[in-house]
Amino acid sequence: MATAAAEKDDQPAARFGKDQLKAIVERVERLEEEKKAIADDIRDVYAEAKANGFDVKTLRVVVRMRKQDVNERQEQQAILETYLNALGMLAA
Known about the structure:
- By secondary structure, the protein is mostly helical.
- It is elongated and about 80 Å long.
- The protein is built from 4 helices and no strands.
- The protein folds into 2 domains: 15-52; 55-92.
- The mean pLDDT is 90.
């Protein structure tokens, strides 16, 4: 009975499926490694910025804002100002 299962696994369609699955898993693993390396590089850049006297929290906000569409950024800024004004946190 074990030989029948082994023969079925050796069929071309099953072998192709296993090979394709293995290739996909290996690609994902490589990309995960690259992602980790990039995250490490980004952390190093922020550490360098901090060593040069820059505020890292503010830099992260700037990077996030630069990703936004201009209109989206303006809308977020207007909402923030509205909230700050309602809480009395803006000079009148």
